[in-house]
Design brief:
single chain; 319 residues; mainly alpha; three-stranded mixed beta sheet; globular
């Protein structure tokens, strides 16, 4: 996939080159990564063991949690290793694979968020047809198609980013191999590559944003026609967690990838940390703290575990 490159390795500058800040940052981001893993695995397990959550909405949520784990795992371990090690070298092929993996999972995340918005649209606007429209077969088809399209997009992104000639500096001013800092190192003309990447980002980010926007416009119109204030509150309650996640994810994505290359500046690294590291940690809390169904399932699961532990304790005391 690589073009006429002369570099076989890059140097990832990382978050900071200050020795005093590296250890505190390592501890801080290690805690974030651990909370991300525990929180998202917890969501997947909770949906799996709770029959009340075996619905299309939570089917999509488990995939979303899985993707968050993958996105965070693609970037965080190497970032953490770079904070402790003087050697910040990454091979050309490893850098290319990290970029491809991150783009693949981030693209799927866009599509899954759009699917979740469409799911809410059908549930609120067409409740009698919900089971027919959002069937288990349809859910699997939507998810499979998003994985396929994301893979094709990631291949094109990677080809455009790494297909040029790397004959100059090899220092990537970032904590992972992302499009903008890598393209800055390309010696050949990158205008065509940037236009292709911009077009595909527009299709994925703007296209899915339009689906989400149209879904919520339809939801808003339906909710405002409801006679009961309680029904309106219940409808909005089912959407607020998803809207919060959408705002966090697409806000940082628009900031990073839908601005001219000349506009990129030092704040890009902060935005990247937010959407690649922090947001995957926040998502499980948003869906658990603001969602009555998840909180209810969590309480029931806790009671089952406590009762099981009590029964086991009684049996062991008798023996």
């Amino acid at each position: 996939m690589a073009g006429n490159n002369t570099h076989t390795k890059f140097i990832l500058v990382g978050i900071t080159d200050s020795p005093c800040a590296q250890t505190p940052l390592f501890v801080f981001f290690l805690l974030i990564y651990m909370v991300t893993l525990v929180g998202n695995v917890g969501i997947i397990v909770l949906v799996w063991v709770s029959p009340s959550l075996h619905t299309p909405m939570y089917f999509f949520l488990t995939h979303f949690a899985f993707i968050d784990i993958c996105c965070s795992t693609v970037t965080s371990p190497r970032m953490l290793a770079g904070l402790l090690s003087e050697e910040k070298i990454i091979s050309f092929s490893a850098c290319m694979m990290q970029f491809l993996s991150f783009v693949f999972f981030a693209t799927i995340e866009c599509h899954v968020l759009a699917m979740m918005a469409y799911d809410r649209h059908v549930a609120i606007c067409h409740p009698l047809l919900y089971v027919t429209i959002i069937s288990s077969h349809v859910c699997w088809q939507l998810v499979a198609s998003s994985y396929l399209f994301a893979f094709l997009s990631a291949i094109i992104y990677t080809w455009c980013t790494f297909g040029g000639s790397f004959c100059g500096p090899n220092r990537i001013d970032h904590f992972f191999c992302d499009e903008v800092p890598v393209l800055k190192l390309v010696c050949s003309d990158t205008h065509t590559s940037e236009m292709v990447i911009f077009a595909f980002v527009t299709i994925n980010v703007v296209g899915t944003s339009v689906v989400i926007l149209l879904s919520y416009i339809s939801i808003l119109r339906t909710v405002l026609r409801m006679c009961s204030a309680q029904s309106r509150a219940r409808a909005f309650q089912t959407c607020i967690s998803h809207l919060t996640v959408v705002a966090l994810f697409f806000g940082s994505a628009f900031f990073m990838y839908l601005q001219p290359p000349s506009s990129h500046r030092s704040l890009d690294k902060v935005a990247s940390i937010f959407y690649a590291v922090v947001t995957p940690m926040l998502n499980p809390f948003i869906y658990s703290l603001r969602n009555k169904e998840v909180k209810g399932a969590l309480v029931k699961c806790g009671r089952r575990l406590f009762n099981h532990w009590q029964r086991k304790r009684v049996l062991s005391s008798r023996t």
